[in-house]
Write a structure and sequence with these properties.
Main location: membrane
Pfam family, one: EzrA
Low-confidence stretches: none
Number of helices: 16
Membrane topology: Single-pass membrane protein
Radius of gyration: 62 Å
GO biological process, one term: septin ring assembly
Protein name: Septation ring formation regulator EzrA
Structural class: mainly alpha
Number of strands: 0
Length: 580
């Protein structure tokens, strides 16, 4: 046999063996998956779902619970009767396909079986959970009922022991308690007859209603106490106060109808009670706040009127003497103004002001007479009398304050005149001192600008003396002249200082420049120019400037040295400090 044929046969044998092995592997894999599905199916069948359903069935469920039970029981019937049979058929088909070497079709069938089994597991879990919840709900109801009943019984006992604290609301409270008790009865009926789901809802409602009623009853005693105890007590006090005011013949403000206000308050109290009886507690509390505000306003009226009566009693008797005192002050002030006006010019219209005060005082006197008559006849409330009395007192106080201010201003006129005389004398002394001081400088002449300042200051001071020597001194004019004269004297002092410094330094610098006059032509020219300006033009500042410029060029630093020495050794002029 040829070698080539041998090799071909060998190759075919290898391929055949490999194909066989692959087929066996695929078949075995599918068998394993089918076997696993069989095992999981059996485990699912072995679950005690039917037992659990039978146990719940024995509870004899009704109503909503029974509907839920039937729904899930039917799902179990469908699952156990139909789904398992269908799964069994598909597993058988997969096994047949695998045995007949239709491996790919078998695998597809197996995949479908796995998905179907997963859905069946989910359905079984949901069925068990729902059935378990039905059983657990009854157990929870049994546990919770005692807690809810304890809460209810505690509330009922609390209300029963303190029934008086709830006033007329006790009827509605009892009604609500009975409604809650009916809900508990309904719960017991539903729970005992096999409807734990609906029973749980009823129990939850009963508990919520118990808690809500508890919250309401916590607020009611305070409302009842306020309406039934606090307000009647305060109304009684207000009525006693009203009777006392009538006994004392005190009047209340015309804008206040006391009996109508009390009637309005009582109507509001009735409304508050009705709100409370309907459990409209927010409205009841809001109404109580308004009532409390009204009562407090009435208290404030009584307190205000009583306080006003004390003030009227204390001050009414003294108002006439206060008017007489203010009138006497005004007369004396008129006399003082007349006396002072003989020596001083009055610029503040003092006489006109005081005469106006006289008219106001007379009007206040008329108002006081009318007020005292009204008080005697008791025509108005004391608060009105007190307001009128305070208005008169306020006017008199204002007049008296103004009288004092005018009197003080008159008293200050003499002081101001004396002070002005002292200052004028100081100006005169300083002028004469400056004049002597300048004369001692032995200057060839004085600049016109300086003389103008001196004569102007002298003229101001003369005007000041003239004003002070008048028969009737105008202090305002005097003070104005004082300010101007003081400024003029300051300017003159500064001008005198400058004149003195310029003249003295110009002389010293001119003398010092003599040493350079024959050797330095510029210094010689400056020397002659400075001497000319000094002796003939009397411009000492210009002379100082000209010689300083030339001398500084000839000997740098010499001007500062001479100036520093001069200022360091300069004596304080005797005109300094005279006005200080």
């Amino acid at each position: 046999m040829p070698t080539t044929v041998i090799w071909v046969l060998v190759a075919l044998a290898v391929v055949a063996i490999a194909a066989y092995i692959l087929i066996m592997i695929m078949r075995k894999g599918n068998e394993n998956r089918i076997h696993k599905l069989e095992e999981e199916k059996e485990k699912l069948l072995d679950l005690p779902i039917q037992d659990e359903i039978d146990a719940v069935k024995k509870m004899h469920l009704v109503g909503q619970s029974q509907n839920i039970y039937r729904e899930w029981n039917q799902k179990w019937i469908d699952l156990s009767s139909n789904s398992f049979a269908d799964l069994e058929k598909h597993l058988f088909d997969a096994e047949e396909l695998n045995n007949h070497f239709h491996f790919l079709n078998a695998r597809t069938e197996i995949d479908a079986c796995e998905k179907q089994l997963d859905l069946m597991k989910d359905d079984a879990g949901n069925i068990r959970g729902a059935i378990s919840e039905l059983a657990a709900q009854e157990q929870r109801n049994s546990t919770k009922i005692q807690e809810s009943l304890d809460l209810y019984e505690g509330l009922r006992n609390e209300i029963s022991e303190n029934a008086e604290a709830y006033g007329t609301t006790i009827g509605e409270i009892e009604k609500q308690l009975n409604n809650i008790e009916e809900e508990f009865t309904n719960f017991v009926t539903l729970n005992s007859t096999g409807d734990p789901i609906e029973a749980a809802e009823v129990l939850e409602n009963a508990e919520e209603h118990t808690i809500a009623l508890g919250n309401i009853t916590k607020r009611i005693p305070e409302i009842v106490k306020t309406i039934d105890e606090e307000f009647p007590r305060k109304i009684s006090e207000l009525n006693e106060g009203y009777d006392k005011f009538e006994e004392l013949e005190y009047k209340l403000p015309a804008t206040l109808d006391f009996k109508q206000e009390i009637s309005n308050i009582q109507d509001r109290m009735k409304s508050s009670t009705e709100f409370a009886e309907r459990f409209e507690l927010d409205r009841a509390e809001s109404e109580i706040k308004l009532i409390n505000d009204d009562i407090n306003e009435l208290y404030e009226v009584f307190e205000s009127e009583y306080a006003a009566s004390r003030l009227v009693e204390q001050n009414a008797g003294s108002i006439k003497s206060y008017i007489d005192h203010t009138r006497d002050n005004n007369k004396n002030l008129l006399l003082e103004i007349d006396h002072v006006s003989q020596s001083y010019v009055l610029t503040g219209n003092e006489m006109g002001q005081v005469r106006a005060y006289q008219a106001q005082i007379e009007q206040a006197s008329n108002d006081a007479e009318e007020l005292l008559e009204d008080i005697a006849e008791n025509t108005e409330a004391n608060s009105v009398f007190n307001s009128r009395l305070k208005a008169i007192q306020g006017l008199l106080e204002e007049i008296e304050d103004n009288q004092l201010k005018i009197n003080d201003s008159l008293s200050r006129l003499k002081v101001s005149e004396k002070d002005a005389q002292v200052k004028a004398d100081a100006f005169d002394i300083e002028l004469r001192t400056i004049k002597r001081y300048v004369e001692k400088l032995n200057l060839p002449g004085l600049p016109k600008e300086y003389l103008d300042l001196f004569y102007m200051a002298t003229s101001r001071v003369e005007s000041l003396f003239k004003e002070l020597n008048k028969v009737r001194v105008n202090v305002d004019t005097v003070n104005h002249l004082l300010d101007i004269s003081n400024e003029d004297m300051n300017v003159l002092e500064d001008a005198t200082d400058k004149l003195t410094d310029d003249a003295n330094l110009a002389e010293q610098l001119i003398q010092y420049s003599n040493r350079y006059k024959t050797t330095d032509g510029e210094v010689a020219k400056a020397f002659n120019r400075a001497v000319q300006v000094f002796d003939n033009e009397w411009d000492y500042g210009k002379a100082r400037e000209d010689i300083s410029t030339a001398l500084e060029q000839a000997e740098p630093g010499s001007v500062d040295r001479i100036s520093n020495f001069y200022f360091n050794n300069k004596e304080v002029p005797d005109y300094k400090g005279i006005r200080r």
